[in-house]
Amino acid sequence: MIFKKTFSLQVNVDTYSQDEVQGVVLEDDKGLAQNDKREPQDECNVEDAERQLSRPEKEPVPCASAPCMNGGTCSNSGTSFSCSCPVGYTGDACETQVPCASAPCMNGGTCSNNGTSFSCSCPVGYTGDRCETQVPCASAPCMNGGTCSNNGTSFSCSCPVGYTGDRCETQVPCASAPCMNGGTCSNNGTSFSCSCPVGYTGQRCD
To answer: Of 135, 159, 194, which one is at a domain's C-terminal end?
Structure first.
């Protein structure tokens, strides 16, 4: 809005012409109008500040800070997060190692977690940190009192008198020389028979 100033102007008619007097009045009105104008830039700055204050703050994104450790996958849940952990790790942020999760024990061994390490309880026939070494004689493969010897991943049996075979599984009745007085022994499966010399008789030529 432009306010006009009312004033009286005394002009010496003898000194100024009518047109010159009119020019002075118009020039003074123009100056008053310019002084009364508001700066539009100031009004814009106020409006921008009000909009900034009324703008809602952005909600935090929990996964933005990459809270999941050891390769875990983060999922946002409102203002919190959850981690999907890879094999071998657990905890809210996948911070705890689970060594047995990777099944390090071989050949049927049972794994036990010991902090960040593990131990294996091996089945019969195996040994080593991971039950990786076979112990053939551990299963006592030799029968009938035979003595077992480990040969790498295999074994051999030393059989007692009267037995033979890879595991001492075959009885040799004549091995104990059951025939007396010079009798001749013959194996018949798990039994024997004696052929006696002249002058002797009986099952054992006794």
So the answer is: 135
Residue 49 inside a domain? The answer is no
Residue 66 forms part of a structural domain: yes
Residue type, 11: V
* Within a domain: 25: no
Over range 47-71, report the average pLDDT: 76
Range 2-18 burial, b when 16+ CB lie within 10 A, else e: eeeeeeeeeeeeeeeee
- d(C-alpha 121, C-alpha 174), whole Å: 45
**How much is the average pLDDT of 3-21?**
48
Global confidence as pTM: 0.47
d(CA 89, CA 100): 10
The predicted structure's pLDDT at residue 25: 47
CA distance 161 to 147: 12
CATH number at residue 122: 2.10.25.10
DSSP 94: S
Q: How many domains does the chain have?
A: 4
- Residues 171, 179 contacting (CB under 8 angstroms): no
Q: Which two tokens stand for residue 55?
A: 């703008």
Enclosing domain of residue 182:
172-205
